[in-house]
Structure formats: C-alpha cells, structure tokens
Amino acid sequence: MSGEIIGLHHWFESAPGRHLLEWEQARYDELVADVFGFHALQLGSPALHGLRANRMPHRWLALGEAESRLPNVAPALLAEGVMLPFPEASLDLVLMPHTLELSPEPHAALREVHRVLVPEGRVVISGLNPWSLWGLRQKRARLYQRLGAGGRLYLPESGEFIAPGRLRDWLQLLGFELESVSFGCFRPAVVSDHWLRNYEWMDGLGARWWPVLGAGYVTVAVKRVAGVRLLEPAWSTAAAPVAAQAQVAQRGRAGG
C-alpha cells in the first residue's frame, strides 16, 4: 500500500498527473466554496488543497502513515480512513480525493465517513475513471504485462480504479443521495505537456458529447437520515443576512 501511495504522489508530478490535478483543484474550489458548517476534513492526497476555498472555522488534512512520510508534505492529522478520530455525526464536510482507490478497504472507508458526517453532511469523492481513454490505455498495458510483452503503465499502480456507476451504487447502499457528478480530462492518453496542450480542444467536445468518458470524475453525495429535517432558524427573514455573514470564517489551507 505504501508503494501505491508513493506511486500516485509521483504520478501527480507527470504531465497527465499535473493536468488532472489542475482540473480537480478547480472542481474542488468550486464545489466546497459555499458548503457551510463548522468542521471539514480532507482524507489524503496532500498535493490537492481541497479545502482552501472553504470557509469553515475548523479544517483538517488527515494522512495515513505512508502519506505523512512523503517529502514536502506539511504536518497533518495522522489517521487511517477506516478509523477516523472523530465522534459520530461530528463533521459537516469530508473530501476523499483518490482515497478509495488507495484504500485496502474502500467499503469500510465509506462507512466510516458516513459515521462521522452529520445528517445532511456532504462527501466529495474524486477518482480516475477506468472507462476513459486514459483508463483503456492502462488496461491495455496491464494486459501486455500479463502476456509478458512489456507495456508501460500510463496511470499509477493503485489497484482497480472505481467506476462512477459502481461508486454510485456503494453510496446509495449506505444511504447517501447523489447530488452531482463532474467529468473532466478528455484529452488522449499522451505523456508530454506539448501533446496535452495540442489536444486541449477535446475538453470542450468531450464535456458536451461524451461526458462520462472523462479521465477524472468528482462525485458529491449528501448523507440522508430518515426522519431528520433541517429546521430554519427562528429569526425574521430580515435578520438572515446578518446571520449569514457571521458564518464566514477566515480562509486558510487544509490543515491550517
């Protein structure tokens, strides 16, 4: 497992890795900016600053032991995804960037996130799509390797990637409601910055004509609890803007 984590960390330094990371960073910034509450957690992937656009007063970055030993990684909370040091129903937002791909027990990690989320809390999950041009090149390389014909992997060696449809089924079984799924990185599986830039035009076409074939995806789901309904504050509507301003905390990076 430590080798897979290091492999993903180094892959993010490659041309396709940087491209994916840039797209994911933009999506996280957009998706978490207006999620309010008090406590937010990012699980893994220190190269991504998933909570930098969020304004909750308490934000943590949690890393496993292997990730915490990576070079140039800021101090973070040491925790494994299957056993989080938080009480039940205590977090308003949890980010899982590539967390499930690297977890030896992805189902257990999702159950643990469901445990620590408050009712109506959100989880944001990103991953690599096996049904994409990038994923298909990875499958071909693995086939060549099994046949003894060589074959260089295009994506990091991190087990089988989780398809968005499969992840949706897991979430629904736990009682999450799917809120949105975003796809990105539609360029061919090339290895150089030069060719990735040349195929930039494919991102616009892909988002319009074949969105589910994006190399990366970000899923947002909400924890639903039967019989639980969020109540509006017992204030007049005129006081609402003041209350909204009071919720805004100083911006900072995850783990800050």
Automatic annotation (TrEMBL):
This chain belongs to which protein, by name? SAM-dependent methyltransferase
Residues forming coiled coils: none
MF-aspect GO terms: S-adenosylmethionine-dependent methyltransferase activity
Alphabetically ordered keywords of this record: Methyltransferase, Transferase
Protein origin, superkingdom: Bacteria
Ranges of residues in domain Methyltransferase type: 76-125
Transferase keyword on record: yes
InterPro entries from the xrefs? Methyltransf_11 (IPR013216), SAM-dependent_MTases_sf (IPR029063)
Which species is this UniProt entry from? Melaminivora suipulveris
Q: Please list the GO biological process terms of this entry.
A: methylation
